[in-house]
Write a structure and sequence with these properties.
The protein is built from five helices and three strands. The chain has 99 residues and is α/β, with parallel strands linked by helices. It has one domain: 3-Layer(aba) Sandwich (Rossmann fold), CATH 3.40.50.1010. Strands 1-2-3 form a three-stranded parallel beta sheet, covered by helices on one side. The two termini are 26 Å apart. The model has no long low-confidence stretch (mean pLDDT 91).
C-alpha cells in the first residue's frame, strides 16, 4: 500500500466537476479499495471549506451544498496530521534548487 499526501485541490475534484476530475475520481476509487493510504495536513478541512464556499458564492454549486460536500470529502478523506512539524520539510522540498 502506498501512502499519499492528499492535496485539497484533488479532493475538491471528487465533488466538483472540473479539469482533472476523472483522474481524481479514479484515485478515490483506488483509495476506497484500500490500494492507497492518504494523509493530509490538519488545515485540509479549512482549505476545502474555502474552495467550496467560494463555489457557492460564484453559483457553481447551490447554496448549502458546500457543507454536504465537505462531509462527503471527509468521509473518504485523509488521516489528518498536524502541519507545523511538517512545515520545514515542505519548505525544503519547494526550494528552487530541489525542483
Amino acid at each position: 500500500m502506498s501512502v499519499f499526501v492528499l492535496d485539497s485541490s484533488v479532493a475538491v475534484k471528487w465533488v466538483l466537476s472540473e479539469a482533472g476530475t476523472p483522474k481524481a475520481l479514479a484515485f478515490l476509487d483506488e483509495v476506497r479499495k484500500d490500494a492507497h493510504q492518504i494523509i493530509a495536513p490538519d488545515v485540509f478541512a479549512t482549505e476545502i471549506a474555502h474552495v467550496l464556499t467560494k463555489a457557492e458564492r460564484k453559483k457553481l454549486i447551490p447554496v448549502g451544498d458546500a457543507v454536504k460536500h465537505i462531509f462527503d470529502i471527509l468521509a473518504d478523506g485523509p488521516d489528518l496530521r498536524p502541519f507545523m512539524p511538517l512545515l520545514p520539510r515542505a519548505i525544503d522540498i519547494r526550494r528552487p534548487e530541489s525542483l
